[in-house]
Amino acid sequence: MAIFSQTRARTGAPYPAAVRLPSLRYFGPNWYAMVMGTAIVAGAGAALPVHVPGLRAACTVVWALSALLLVAVLTARAGHWSAHRDQARAHLLDPAVAPFYGCLSMALLAVGGSTMVVGRDVVGHRAALTVDVVLYSAGTAIGLVVAVAIPYLMVVRHRPAPGTASPVWLLPVVAPMVSAALGPLLVPELPAGQWQEAMLLACYAMFGLSLLATLTMLPLIFARLVHQGPLPLALTPTLFLVLGPLGQSTTAVGQLADVAPGAIGAQYASALGAFAVLYGVPVMGFALLWLALAVSMVVRALRGGMTFNMTWWGFTFPVGTCVTGASGLARHTGLTAFTWLAVALYVLLVSAWAVAGLRTLRGLVSGALLAAPQAPRPVTARTT
């Protein structure tokens, strides 16, 4: 894809070679959301508790696309750090941008997981396992570092003003939850005994780490909405990010319960199976409540003139986690209602992915998405 540099004032001086090349100056870590949103379409489609002719093949194509996108974004981000280190450092010190570094971890994990679930049909089990081990290991390590580093920067360097809490703050602490949800794919591949039990409990530890961190931030986010009013139009889609830890945690407990027998004592395995339902059902209920609130706010923002930007990718991955969460509940409870909920959410996911993908392609062709960012438009009224 062609990426062009920003226009410079004519000073008569020759342009440096780095500027004559395609510019990646404003290619931030938020672009990993595109990879996450694409990979989850494949993974969630494969997890649906219904058989749809042709769906598996379509998911395989989407998985291949997500893998290509991961390579492209990793390459572009490497170019960004190489050619625009000042901007890269500025991103780390920007409280609105730094949390998106959690997307790097989740992009690696999502592609690795979908490779194990869908990609193995193409590359074979052994190759898929190798890819997943590499991406899972890298994604988990990066996610744990980011879960500490970004909150540290928020405390000692960012110092966001009171009342500016954003759903974007969840991104760094959700990454370990993605590791917890995708780790069960690797449990059966490990030697029986200590290795499997250690992997299982490590996933539960990351589940707890992410869940408790999320619970500390959600009150701040809701308080900001109540006291400061709706988010700026461009940031309204980030409300969907709250669905991420909700759907992903429901997915995690279901997946972990599936692999618990044989990896841990029978008494614990039975308890973990019950926990998957006792935890998942209430959390899925809250996820649906938040989904209704977020959709209402998005409709309001659209009526107020909200236009496309990269935050629209927030409509994809979080909804996808709810699809996999509902699919897990359908599997554990046998309730048809959860099956249809998973299908309905998947239709929403695919629709959002198609819209975001087409708008992104159009923005890349026009160059609008690579231009210098503009300040979000303020919301002046709260009465509608």
Task: Give a verbal description of the structure.
The chain is an all-alpha fold and 384 residues long. The chain has 12 helices and no strands. The protein starts with 16 loop residues before the first helix and ends in an 18-residue tail after the last helix. Residues 1-22 and 378-384 have low confidence and may be disordered.
Order of helices and strands: HHHHHHHHHHHH
Determine the number of helices (DSSP H or I, runs of at least 4 residues).
12
**How many E-type strands?**
0
Radius of gyration: 21 Å
Give the structural class: mainly alpha
Summarize model confidence as the mean pLDDT. 90
> Judging from the principal axes of the Cα atoms, what is the shape?
globular
Determine the fraction of residues in helical runs and give it as a percent range.
Answer: 55-70%
Strand content: under 5%
Uncertain ranges: 1-22, 378-384
Beginning-to-end CA distance, first to last residue: 41 Å
Which sheet architecture does the biggest sheet show?
Answer: none
How are the SSEs ordered, and which strands pair?
Elements (H helix, E strand, L loop, with lengths): L16 H4 L11 H16 L7 H29 L1 H8 L9 H22 L1 H34 L12 H12 L11 H35 L14 H17 L6 H38 L13 H17 L2 H31 L18
State the gist of this model.
This protein is an all-alpha fold and about 375 residues long. The chain has helices at about 15-20, 30-45, 55-85, 85-90, 100-125, 125-160, 170-180, 195-230, 245-260, 265-305, 315-335, 335-365. Helix 2 (about 30-45) packs antiparallel against helix 3, helix 5 runs parallel beside helix 7 (about 170-180) and helix 10 (about 265-305) packs antiparallel against helix 11.
